[in-house]
Structure to design on (271 residues):
């Protein structure tokens, strides 16, 4: 008898094509207007049915994460089991390829991938995942869809949109400096700079507070700006990852070849 093939789910890297902070909310979070887009690459989650729930983390960023109950993969699996009243377990392996605390939704993408994987493996109603996603993190509902969307409220009120970037080559670059999302929001100056219309004319209002905490973000943005063919250059989320879209793969790959060795990068495509 052959071994059962493990189920696999990709946790696509998220970028915010634009992110406007509109104000502080009574719950301590902030009202946003953002356009989410997703890459074709990300972390990789595999699962095999088992009696109990377990998590093993592998990959280049495994050492930065605890594999205990605080991990968002664990929390998502436990929450879904409770919500759907599932008695089964699962042996999960997370291949952690995205840097941690980097503005590309790694933990949120992992939580969302866990919900998708276990909804299929445990054969439960997908509405359970939709219901529990917001409590796992403001970005988890968007990551559950992993399709381009406009996000409002805390980022969790979603409407599917087409920002016109599907299939475009993208380069993500991070100066290998983790950045706390809460610390970046806390550094926002409280000035509402206006609504988000067309994302190309928009901005990322978290760039200024993030750059105060990690000045190397400025170096990454300056470097992306001078790469031939780079367009739509911006920081994602609360940073420190920045991105550029490229007209074609050849110019994107030329930038990859020129990327400083001490920075992390991911060459991908937008979904
Ligand atoms: C900034 C964004 C933009 O997409 O992305 P990342 O930088 O995390 O990738 C998100 O809003 C992050 O969403 P997520 O990472 O799920 O945040 P959460 O776990 O819900 O919140 C972490 C902390 O960030 C702050 N926070 C988050 C969302 C929000 N709308 N307002 C906030 O002020 C709060 O201090 C909160 O305690
Ligand atoms: N599976 C996970 N992947 C990444 N971070 C996780 C995970 N589980 C818990 N965390 C915690 O969530 C925090 C935010 O990480 P992450 O989601 O990668 O940030 P961001 O949303 O800025 O990209 C980190 O401090 C990390 O300790």
């Amino acid at each position: 008898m052959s071994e059962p093939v493990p189920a696999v789910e990709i946790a696509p890297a998220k970028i915010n094509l634009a992110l406007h902070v509109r104000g502080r909310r009574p719950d301590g979070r902030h009202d946003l207007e953002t356009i989410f887009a997703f890459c074709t690459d990300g972390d990789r989650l595999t699962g095999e049915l088992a009696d109990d729930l377990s998590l093993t983390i592998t990959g280049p960023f495994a050492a930065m994460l605890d594999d205990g109950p605080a991990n968002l993969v664990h929390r998502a699996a436990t929450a879904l089991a409770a919500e759907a009243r599932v008695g089964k377990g699962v042996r999960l392996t997370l291949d952690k390829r995205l840097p941690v605390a980097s503005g590309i939704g790694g933990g949120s993408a992992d939580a969302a991938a866990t919900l998708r994987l276990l909804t299929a493996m445990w054969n439960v109603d997908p509405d359970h995942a939709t219901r529990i996603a917001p409590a796992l993190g403001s970005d988890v509902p968007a990551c559950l869809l992993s399709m381009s969307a406009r996000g409002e409220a805390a980022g969790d009120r979603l409407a599917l949109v087409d920002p016109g970037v599907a299939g475009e080559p993208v380069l993500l670059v991070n100066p290998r400096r983790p950045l706390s999302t809460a610390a970046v929001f806390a550094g926002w100056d409280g000035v509402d700079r206006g609504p988000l219309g067309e994302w190309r004319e928009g901005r990322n209002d978290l760039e200024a507070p993030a750059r105060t905490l990690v000045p190397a973000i400025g170096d990454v943005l300056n470097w992306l700006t001078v790469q031939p063919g780079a367009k739509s250059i911006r920081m994602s989320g609360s940073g420190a990852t920045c991105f550029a879209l490229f007209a074609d793969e050849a110019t994107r790959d030329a930038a990859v070849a020129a990327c400083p060795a001490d920075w992390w990068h991911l060459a991908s495509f937008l979904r």
